[in-house]
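step: validate -> pass
step: tokenize input -> pass
step: predict -> running
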Amino acid sequence: MSFCHLHCHSEYSLLDGANRVGDLIRRAQEWEQPALALTDHGCMFGAWTFQEQAKKAGVKPIVGMEAYVAPGSRLERSKSKGEKGYYHLVLLARDLQGYRNLSKLSSIGYTEGFYAKPRIDREVLARHSEGLIVSSACLAGEIAQHLMADRWGQAREAAAWYAELFQGRYYLEVQGHDSEGQHELNRRIFKLADEIGLPVVATNDAHFLKGEHHEAHDVLLCIGLGKDFDDPNRMKYDRELYFKNADEMRERFPDRPDVLENTLRIAEEVELAMPKKYHVPAFPFPRGWRTRTRCCGSGCGTAPGKGTATRCPSTCRSGSNTSWVSLRIPSSTMQATS
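step: predict -> pass
step: emit ->
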């Protein structure tokens, strides 16, 4: 049985992820994993590079994001004492519409919901839900936070809301590492899934490539948090948060092969074809001006030089004073976007 990673952080999870995009793709090739998701924190900065390189390497790219979701409205700039003010949620683009919605959600997080982190909320999730596959994320996820605080009723309500919105596209998430509380959370996730009939998917929240990279990642965290390496009270990540192969993940869930199979099921559902074409800005013309494709109704066919605007030639029988406009677009603006 194979497996693919659906929760991975790259260097674009700024000062948190230590994986380079190319290294992740090569590792997926090495482990013969058919697909790979990139789910950086609150952003899609690496999406284009990732999907281009993955396709060339023969690995199916799954473009995603680990979103920050406000407990209430994204517009509220406050939080309860002792709380972060956001939950984590993994969003994956199933198709082109999903990619477009993912892009919109990422932008909304920065332009409307930014409060410590670029946050979205249930309102915009409901508005831009089409084409997205969703999982409940890590210990910082909404379901996880309720379960670990024994708020089972709230966990059921939240899971039911997501399951209703993302019908057939919502998964509870278990992870195969040893972070404090993770084993107990996995047990509670399985119990909740059995109660309300939701599928479960396994991830490893990979922040670095190999087990021996843990210390280097630890230094990266210190830079991001502004903490001394020797500070005993600073945040530390578990050593198991690396890019594991299928056998290592199977050892974590020996009695639940379905959670690995579901990673392949999700990968098979993803069909994202990224159109590649040039987009240039549309310039409004003053009244009475024309583009260089025509000068007036007579169709005299005379074209101006680059970067110039000229009158119709005297040979034009219409006698029109309509002007030409020729625009020269710098090559630096001609780039592929979606």
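step: describe -> The CA atoms of residues 104 and 279 lie 18 Å apart.
step: cleanup -> pass
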